[in-house]
Design goal:
The protein is an alpha+beta fold. The chain has two domains: about 120 residues, NusG, N-terminal domain (Alpha-Beta Plaits); about 55 residues, SH3 type barrels (Roll), CATH 2.30.30. The protein is built from three helices and twelve strands. The protein has a five-stranded antiparallel sheet with strand order 11-10-9-8-12, with no helix packed on it. It is elongated.
């Protein structure tokens, strides 16, 4: 028997979980659990910081997409492709292309121990969304610069930090600080 590989399926936006459930039910009804190993809707925990208050929310990492670990054959292709809400496999034309290990790693997902919704033991990536902009004033909430006010000069979403100018010895000095360590003024 062939080895199961990871494929990406495009769905209608907002139908990811319904597609996942429908595929799992169909696979169970047809006793194909050995061919369709896993259906995943990757999620991440996003911490939104507004006026110094942090609020965690779970959001889909790839809205409109579902990852499926399966052995590609006529039966599995048919089941997935004809599931309500599925618009097709990701790949050229109608030819599904499996994800390479490098692509899986680049997505930041460790599979098969992936980020799966409704699984308490799954690891989650935590990203903070910052609602400020360059030029805004912020107060530093912790660390060596606690209670210092500075102006945002750069926002780095990738590193989840800000660069702000603070006054030190009579001069403006750039300081890099995390999103959760500041509050907008």
């Amino acid at each position: 028997m062939d080895e199961a590989k990871w494929y990406v399926v495009h769905t209608y936006s907002g139908y990811e979980n319904k597609v996942k459930e429908n595929i799992q039910k169909t696979v169970e009804n047809r006793n194909l659990e050995d061919q369709v190993v896993d259906v995943v809707v990757p999620i991440e925990t996003v911490v939104e910081v507004k006026n110094g208050a942090s609020k965690a929310a779970k959001k889909k990492m790839f809205p409109g997409y579902v990852l499926i670990n399966m052995v590609m054959n006529d039966d599995t292709w048919y089941i997935v492709r004809n599931t309500r809400g599925v618009t097709g496999f990701v790949g050229p034309g109608s030819m599904p292309v499996p994800l390479t290990p490098e692509e899986i790693k680049a997505l930041g997902i460790e599979l098969p121990e992936s980020i799966v919704e409704d699984t308490d033991s799954a690891e989650e990536i935590i990203r903070v969304q910052f609602d400020g902009k360059v030029g805004d004033q912020v107060m530093i909430l912790s660390g060596a610069w606690e209670n210092t006010v500075g102006e945002i000069t750069d926002i780095n979403d990738g590193k989840q930090c800000l660069t702000i100018n603070v006054e030190m010895f009579g001069r403006e000095t750039p300081v890099e600080i995390g999103f959760t360590d500041v509050r907008l003024m």
